[in-house]
Amino acid sequence: MTPTNPERAGPNPATRTPEPLSTHALKLAYGQNVIIPGLDLAVAGGQVTSIIGPNGCGKSTLLRALARLLPSGAGHIELYGQALHALPSREIARRLAILPQGPTAPEGLSVEDLVWFGRHPHQGRFPVRRAEDREAVQWALDQTGMRVFAARPLEALSGGQRQRAWIAMSLAQQTDILLLDEPTTYLDPSHQLEVLHLAQRLNREQGKTVVMVLHDLNQAVRYSDRLIAMSGGAVYAHGPAGDVLTHDLLRDVFGLKAHLLPDPDTGRPHVIPYALTR
Amino acid sequence: MTALSAPARFTARRALLVGAALLALCAALAVLALGLGAVPTPARDVLAALTGDGDALTRQLVLDLRAPRIGVALLCGAMFAASGTIMQGVIRNPLASPDLIGVGAGAGLAATVFLLAWPAAPAGGLPWAALAGAWGGFGLVLLLARERGGALHPVRLALIGVAVASALGAAQQLVLVRAPDGLGSALSFLTGTVYGADVTRLTRVLPWALVLLPGALLLSRTLDVLNLGEDVATALGTRVNPARLLALAVGVALAGAAVTGAGILGFVGLLAPHLARLLVGARHARTLPVSMLLGALLVLAADTLGRALLPPLEVPAGIFTTLVGAPYFLYLLRKSA
């Protein structure tokens, strides 16, 4: 895996292929409450990127805005170089899938029913189930290991299985870009690992661009190609996963003193916090 | 992990069976109700009259006098049920129902005022007045229930809805009491009965039903997607606010038009969707038609019971639907609080 730096890739910006997602002087706010004052960011294509940062730093806000779940206050977002707000929502849904935090489904819905919703952006006014739709649904069920549970109602599943069912729905959209908002929250350690492995596999085997918001620094550094560290609504650091986590960053962004030991598998830093700096 | 590949609870086959059974029940009950009255008509004669045979008197009794009433009961029941299903889906609130969020009461009040103020109005005008009133009542409830942040607690909406509905209902009673004698009794159906429903009332409701009931079915998939919540619906490419508005418009229009046929049939719009989801699950392509059939069956059964129980007295259908619906509403309130 050679880390790439598309935002600094070639001298002539006009000739390079546009990044899957980029923000330009993006401002995000909830009413009067400004979360992100102005952000310029480019997400690397074909990579797993994780956004890390303390609570309230704007990482989920950013992810939601990238998926047009939040309107931007000023500036704009581009999807493969096209202004996001000018694209039809349905067309966006064929290129970018997002799994928001804590989604809920009506009672009685089966896993397969749910995964079929992922075909919604591809279907016309009348939901004819074409062969390609069936294939996409089966593929999504296989990728997530949910085929055996296809007929189960969602409420009869464990937390990890339910999360995988929702991811399967996003996969059925067959998009190049997959955004996951804290996909491991509320899952036990083995289910967390399952979700992270799945994200990595989708990237390696399908070439998907994956962007996740993660809380666990060690999971983020181990399972991502690139990290974006946010602090106070701005990007503190953005780069290859092995380069971002430093003593300075942990102190400035998280208020932590930590040992940084090389991960025996990846050689990237493994964080062992031992004290608070504030 | 038990039952790894447990069979799906809600299958298309099951939905078809439930639908067919409900349709058969509606048909059987309709034949029974067509024979019911001061001059009882056996089912055989009813069927003969329906197919154009039999003697003229029976045909007149069955087709001209009883059929419109049964038609109104079936249509208005189906419309209230469809309206409730849509509203519960869009507002994502199990306590939503046209009569519980001001829609029915607003329509009733507006229809009353319209008829009193303009007795010579063209027959087609009344549903439009009711529609305006339905939006008025609904708007009032939403305005009062609005909270900072926009989240609507289900119980809060229901409580405000019930209070507004009571106030609008009282206003309607007040207007009715002050109405001239003849006109007042002509309007009494607005309180929830199909008693005295004639061809005029049937033809008033029918065009709305013919447009809006299939229209509701076309919304099935939109409702399914909205049911997954605002974020997921957006993620799947739905423009949430226009979709919600369209669905609500159909739901409000269904209830508004139904009020001009049978008044407010209490709790039909609450009960039918809940029962439908229990029977066939949460996907609207199945829930909506089953809910419509249940609503139709419920109102026809209530009306038939009301006619058969203490003849020649007629107990309004709305009383029976409320008797069944109110306890269930209380149960839902306890569950949601």
Instruction: Summarize model confidence as the mean pLDDT of chain A.
Output: 89
C-alpha geometry of chain B: globular
Strand arrangement, largest sheet of chain A? 6-7-8-3-9-10
Query: So how many helices of chain B?
Result: 14
Descriptive overview:
The complex is a heterodimer of chains A (278) and B (337). In chain A, 31% of the residues lie in helices and 27% in strands. By secondary structure, chain A is an alpha/beta fold. Chain A has a single domain, classed as Rossmann fold (3-Layer(aba) Sandwich), CATH 3.40.50.300. In chain A, strand 9 and strand 10 (234-240) form a beta hairpin. Chain A is globular and about 55 Å long. Mean pLDDT of chain A is 89; it is low at 1-13. Chain B has 337 residues and is mainly α. Mean pLDDT of chain B is 85; it is low at 1-5. The radius of gyration of chain B is 20 Å and the shape is globular. Chain B has one domain (22-336): ABC transporter involved in vitamin B12 uptake, BtuC (Orthogonal Bundle). The chains are: A alpha/beta (278), B mainly alpha (337). The interface between A and B is medium-sized, with 39 and 25 residues.
What's the helix and strand layout?
The complex is a heterodimer of chains A (278) and B (337).
Chain A: E1 21-30, E2 33-43, E3 48-52, H1 59-66, E4 74-79, E5 82-83, H2 89-95, E6 96-99, H3 111-117, H4 131-143, H5 159-172, E7 177-181, H6 189-206, E8 209-213, H7 217-223, E9 226-231, E10 234-240, H8 241-244, H9 247-254, E11 256-262, E12 269-276
Parallel strand pairs in A: 3-8, 3-9, 6-7, 7-8
Antiparallel strand pairs in A: 1-2, 1-4, 4-5, 9-10, 11-12
Helix pairs in contact in A: 3-5, 4-5
Chain B: H1 12-35, H2 43-50, H3 56-91, H4 103-117, H5 125-145, H6 154-177, H7 181-187, H8 199-218, H9 220-226, H10 230-235, H11 240-262, H12 268-280, H13 284-309, H14 317-336
